[in-house]
Amino acid sequence: NAGVTQTPKFRILKIGQSMTLQCTQDMNHNYMYWYRQDPGMGLKLIYYSVGAGITDKGEVPNGYNVSRSTTEDFPLRLELAAPSQTSVYFCASSYSKGVNTGELFFGEGSRLTVL
Amino acid sequence: GNSVTQMEGPVTLSEEAFLTINCTYTATGYPSLFWYVQYPGEGLQLLLKATKADDKGSNKGFEATYRKETTSFHLEKGSVQVSDSAVYFCALKAGTALIFGKGTTLSVSS
Question: A79, A107, A109, A90: which is closest to A13 by C-alpha?
Fold first, then answer.
């Protein structure tokens, strides 16, 4: 079972470059999320989506964009990379109903370095 | 606003020692509470959860009790193993997303 798959696992960008982090899940989850993890800071929510065609900002959305054209895919776009965006990015998904809505299924992460 | 505060690490223990990682929260209403674990090089995975006051979540020998009076959800294990070495995150569910604490690194030596 694939679960949540993120690509790439590692990437180095130059300041000002753009890129897209890909995320796909095969569990038919309606809810999907992007978090960033910085050392000693825990996870911060960037964007989330409650279903295809619906996205909303989290705590730290500046410098990022997302889209959700299908249930399976939730790509994260960095338009003008900045050193402050150096981080580990995690995509996650979850059920949308019932008592299990708090159980997030995480991908393995994408480590991005901006130089 | 909603927030989660965890004890700072790292926590270093010998095998078979007792573990406590403190977690307190601030939230409106009565959120669901969670502990997630992150092993080196991996994403987070759910360890246990509690959805209402006085609930006890348990898994793999770990336990945590939802204490409304003290707004706490401390993680405990009676006898840790080397394989428990990881980063532990306390989290609460606020609306659609989870709010995470900063994480506590546990290192267990044999």
Answer: A79
Residue contacts between A and B (CB atoms, under 8 Å) = 52
Q: Are A89 and B44 in contact (CB under 8 A)?
A: no
Whether residue B5 lies within 8 A of chain A, CB to CB, comes out as: no
Residue B29 has what pLDDT?
A: 82
Is residue B96's pLDDT more than 80? no
Distance (Å) from the C-alpha of residue B82 to the closest C-alpha of chain A? 22
For the cut 70, the answer to whether the pLDDT of residue A100 exceeds it is no
Which of A32, A43, A93 to mutate to test binding with chain B, by most B CBs within 10 Å of its CB? A43
Distance between CA A44 and CA A64 in Å, rounded?
13
> pLDDT at position A2, please?
77
Mean pLDDT of B56-65: 97
Who has greater pLDDT, B103 or B8?
B103
Tell me which chain A residue has its CA closest to the CA of residue B101: A42
Q: How many CA atoms lie within 13 A of A60 on its CB side?
A: 16
Predicted pLDDT of residue A99: 57
* Cα nearest neighbour of A48 on chain B: B97
Distance CA B26, CA B95 (A): 14
The CB-side HSE value for A113 (13 A sphere, CA atoms) comes to 4
